[in-house]
Structures are given as structure tokens and as C-alpha cells.
Amino acid sequence: MVNPLLPRLAGTFIPVRDIEKARDWYCRLFGLPLDTPILFDHLCPLPVEGPGIILDTMPMWGGKEPQGAATYQTPALMFPTSDLEAAYNYMKELGVELVTEIEHNHWFVFKDPDGNLLMICKEQSPE
Q1: pLDDT tens for residues 77-101?
Q2: What is the pTM of this model?
Q3: Domains (ranges, CATH) in the chain?
Q4: Which of 89, 98, 105 shows the shortest CA–CA distance to 119?
């Protein structure tokens, strides 16, 4: 049997409760256009490099429930930075809820407004 799967990540979904509020928050966080379109009233593909980031209220997966779809309770996504200290201070200036301090001079965890745990890591230089 031939394996039809491609060994790469095409994108990832982030569960959110309010698609417009989430879009605005993530766009401000990453310096993206605030008019990034929302599709089908529940999806917002962010214009980022690499595998896509798609904000989604996930109506089929708990998004119609009062509490919304389940959030990431462990850091499932890692965003790179070349300057970890500057990234940490930037998040503090934005008022982002920081879950950890900078750990091992390599990473820290923060929460988005929906309570998803996300990570920022120091980008490794190629050796």
C-alpha cells in the first residue's frame, strides 16, 4: 500500500470563543493587518510564514456549547524568536498573561484571551 500522507504540517487550529476578538488580539500580537478576513463566520486563517495558523470557534467540536471548544491546557504551539528577553518584555508590555518566567534561557509560556497555553522559544541557529 502506498502511503498518501505527506510528512509535514500544513497548519494548526487554535480554538477561540469570539472569532473577531481573537483575530484582533492575534493580529496585534504578531503585527498583522487587523482586517484579516473571517471565513464562514468561524475561521480566521492568519497570514503568517510557515505552517498556517487558523483561529476557529470550532462549531462542530464544542464551539456551540456555552463554554466553547476546549482550549489547549498544555503548550501545543511554539512561536520562535531570535531575542527571547525582548519577546518576553514585549508580551509584558502588551499585558499578555505570562504563565512562566523565561525557563532555561530558552522558552516561556503565555495564555491567549481564551486560555490557550502557547509557548515562545528561542530560535536555534543552524550549526
Answers
A1: 999 999 999 999 999 999 999 999 9
A2: 0.90
A3: 9-70 (3.30.720), 71-127 (3.10.180.10)
A4: 98
